[in-house]
Amino acid sequence: MGKKVIIADSSSLILLTKVNLLSSFLNTFEVIVPPTVYQEMTFKKQPDGKMLEMGFKKGLYKIVPLPPEPPQISGLKGGEKEVLILFLSRGGTILTDDGRLASLCRREKIPYLNALTAAISLWQEHQIDYETLYKSLIKLIKLGRYSYWVIAYVEKLIGQSLKHPSHPQQPLLNR
Questions:
Q1: pLDDT of the residue at 114
Q2: Tell me: the pLDDT tens digits for 91-135?
Q3: Which residue among 6, 75, 118, 166 is the one 20 to 30 A from 174 at the CA level?
């Protein structure tokens, strides 16, 4: 059985890079990105962009062109729009931390991950240990703009409350 296909948006790949999970993610899943996402990821020659560019050069993910006559999609633009177009033409699972695209995925019942659930997937696939998962989730929550219900969902998935990074006695969510 082949690897699970993930159609990735730049925001999530950049977040996974910032918590040192990109390499594990790219080695665990078959990751594809549309052309605009690649441009968004590598536009600035920041360390994150350089690491993402190196992953492409090593063949860890592929840039996949859009179909010749992509469907018309409103409400999304740029990389998010192209991610959805690739999903509609190929199937798979979307990886995004973009609120509009994530909302659309929930509404249309499109399988998707965000950086938090991608980290959990790596743990479930035995690619990272629980301590790495926990530390990564805390960092991702600090970096990302996650709503309380997303954090609550993640806590339910891992079966544990996440503690506030600067106040370990205080949970991230006040119940």
A1: 96
A2: 999 999 999 999 999 999 999 999 999 999 999 999 999 999 999
A3: 118
DSSP type of residue 21? -
Answer whether residue 163 is part of any domain: no
Specify the long-range contacts of residues 127-133, CB closer than 8 Å, at least 24 apart.
127/24, 127/27, 127/28, 128/21, 128/24, 133/158
Is residue 115 in some structural domain? yes
Residue 93 lies in a domain: yes
The model carries a pTM of 0.86
Residue 62 lies in a domain: yes
**3 state SS of 164:** strand
Q: Which helix (H) or strand (E) holds 117?
A: helix 115-124
Q: How many CA atoms lie within 13 A of 133 on its CB side?
A: 22
Number of domains in the chain: 1
